[in-house]
Amino acid sequence: MLQTASRLYTEKIPFNKLLGIEVASLSFEDVSIKLPFRDELVGNYIRGSLHGGVVSAVLDLAGGLVAFLSALKSAHGKTPEEKMERLARVGTIDLRADYLRPGLGAHFLCSAYVLRAGNKVAVSRMELVNDEGTVIAVGTGAYLVG
């Protein structure tokens, strides 16, 4: 089930493909996604740092994925169709992003875990670091999961 979720996430969602994200690790409790640096993602051309929208998007992608996986875990016994229907309903309710440092690096890793999972809403905590382990941004997101 986790392999299928990873494949859907990286291959079927056009925006994720555009960003070039890769799933680094995946479980029902936490996820990590990797974002390779590309010139197309630069927001500050003088510094060469990631665009703030890319940073918030990656935080949101990781938070939403772990919220979905948490909901999927609680959907044991459901048919594959029922699980896909649940995936279709996942959406961001609220996102807070705190930008701590410029997005400089060769690649970035965003980790996320669920703070609370309910029947309808899950809340995730996310952290984006660069290839040197420097924290670039942190975030919290609320997601509709049911």
Task: Report a brief summary of the structure.
The protein is 34% helix and 39% strand. The chain has 4 helices and 8 strands.
The value of Rg in angstroms is 15 Å
Number of domains: 1
- Morphology: globular
Strand order of the largest sheet: 1-2-6-7-8-5
Our estimate of the beta-strand percent is 35-45%
Q: With helices defined by DSSP (H or I, 4 residues minimum), what is the helix count?
A: 4
Q: Can you tell me the CATH superfamily?
A: Hotdog Thioesterase
Sequence-ordered SSE layout with sheet pairings:
Blueprint lengths: L1 H11 L1 H6 L2 E5 L3 E7 L5 E3 L4 E2 L1 H22 L6 H10 L1 E9 L7 E11 L3 E10 L4 E10 L2
Structure write-up:
By secondary structure, the protein is of the alpha+beta class. The protein has a single domain (2-144), classed as Roll (Thiol Ester Dehydrase, Chain A). The protein has helices spanning 2-12, 14-19, 52-73, 80-89; strands spanning 22-26, 30-36, 42-44, 49-50, 91-99, 107-117, 121-130, 135-144. A hairpin with a 3-residue loop joins strand 6 (107-117) and strand 7.
Question: Could you list some keywords that capture this structure?
Answer:
146 residues, Thiol Ester Dehydrase, Chain A, six-stranded antiparallel beta sheet, two-stranded antiparallel sheet, 39% strand
